[in-house]
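Feature request disguised as a bug: please show the residue count (261) next to Thaumatin-like protein in the output. Example input:
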Amino acid sequence: MEAARIASFLLLLAGVVWSRAQPGAEAAGTTVFTLRNNCTFTIWPATLSGNSAVAVGGGGFELAPGANVSFPGPTGWSGRLWARTGCVAAASGASLACATGDCGGAVRCTLGGAPPVTLAEFTLGGADGKDFYDVSLVDGYNVGIGVAATGARVNSSTCGYAGCVGDVNALCPAELQVAGKEGDQEGKTVACRSACEAFGTAEYCCTGAHGGPNSCGPTKYSRLFKAACPAAYSYAYDDPTSTFTCGAGAQYLITFCPAQQ
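Example output, currently without the count:
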């Protein structure tokens, strides 16, 4: 998460144990994340907490097409989730090399995903006890992500749908494209870099003379991202239409490749 917004995420974490499901967690008031792979290919979801504690969901795991996995997130947890694609595990199972979203070759991530990567970001039980969440393209895009709040306590008028349903890879300008290198992905666009990663200038990275909301605005590249994904962050200060809140007790369905539903 870029420095301009990291202060808005409370870096608190209670201990958490990975599980395929947690019966009764919702009834007990615990937030439950359900991850659904709606892509036509296997992905390796990854999680990272906002501090040095163990991430929810154990940090990472394999998820086949059409499969779901659920795990709890404690009040006060702040962090991010993303999909790794094009992954090949070592014969020993001790490491994992991924074409996108790789976290230093680890199966269970303790580092952020290498950009370009689409991020789902959460703070549970933040200001006024509310949850804050968003989907961000600030670090680029690899697959679509949709975040829907569910459960009996959800107010549909306030708990909005965050996400990137559009296929940014299909619209990605040539100068931002990342091409696959192996198998049936060779030569195809597997990810779309952010302008900051591609060019490294203050204008695109919201740094230096462009380091504030009044001096860093949308660019032709962030506008392209925003047009494809109106409910996602397109650049660092894209807050008004991109950050969502929900009351405590909501559950969250995170769908990868939601456009393929």
